[in-house]
Amino acid sequence: MIKGKVENIKDKIDGNELDLSLSNLTEVPVKELAAFPKATVLDLSCNNLTTLTPEFFSLTHLIKIDLSKNQLVCLPEEIGQLGNLQHLDLYNNKLKMLPIGFSQLKSLKWLDLKDNPLEPTLAKAAGDCLDEKQCKQCASRVLQHMKVLQEEAEKEREHRLLKERELEKKKEAKQREKEAREKEAQKKKKAEEKERKRKEYQAQMATSASQEQQKKKKEKKKKAAQNQGTVLSDMN
């Protein structure tokens, strides 16, 4: 059998159960599984799965999934899409933590996380999972634990967004101040330029007036001299 491929899936269905255990799988044949929505119980135990693709969680018809004895190191956030999932066996994998999306598994009633290197707070919430009662308690406690983490993550996200908005406001305020300063500087520059031109104009006018006055004086003197010359000529 080719790793990651299963032949004749239909032959592995018994009622509503699909048994793909011990199939040497390295990935789940999601497309093939989607063709059998009546198979609500899926056994993927004892394979070589290290992760699940986001597409796997489009199989929302699943009620029970056995993923025990694989090599799973993480689960995608999309796991929360499995709204009908009631029973999830993750025994003997390599999970350290669960995604926040796990808190969305509102129908989950049974969970086994035994023999996983869980981080301490999650391990405490999961408990021992040694029997049916403890696995039911595990589902309830882990969901509650993940909801708390989700709330904390949401608060952190809101705090981060608030901080980002405050920084953006400060940035905008600084930009407005900068623009106001530039506008004021430009206004001052224009006023100074206008004052310079006004003074130049006044200086030009003063020079022109002075020149005109001197010209008139010269003309007056010239005319006076001419008049005096005429008088002397008449006297002779």
TrEMBL record:
Lineage per the UniProt record: Eukaryota, Metazoa, Chordata, Craniata, Vertebrata
Biased composition (Basic residues): 215-224
Main subcellular location: endoplasmic reticulum
SUPFAM superfamilies listed in its UniProt record: L domain-like (SSF52058)
Listed Gene3D superfamilies: Ribonuclease Inhibitor
Biased composition (Basic and acidic residues): 166-201
Biased composition regions of type Polar residues, renumbered to the chain: 227-236
InterPro entries per the UniProt record, alphabetical: Leu-rich_rpt, Leu-rich_rpt_typical-subtyp, LRR_dom_sf, LRR_domain-containing
Compartment(s) of residence: Endoplasmic reticulum membrane; Microsome membrane; Nucleus envelope
Keyword Repressor among record annotations: no
Protein's recorded name: Leucine-rich repeat-containing protein 59
Protein topology in the membrane: Single-pass type II membrane protein
Organism: Cyprinus carpio
GO cellular component: endoplasmic reticulum membrane; nuclear envelope
Keywords, in A-Z order: Coiled coil, Endoplasmic reticulum, Leucine-rich repeat, Membrane, Microsome, Nucleus, Repeat, Signal-anchor, Transmembrane, Transmembrane helix
Residue ranges, annotated region (Disordered): 166-236
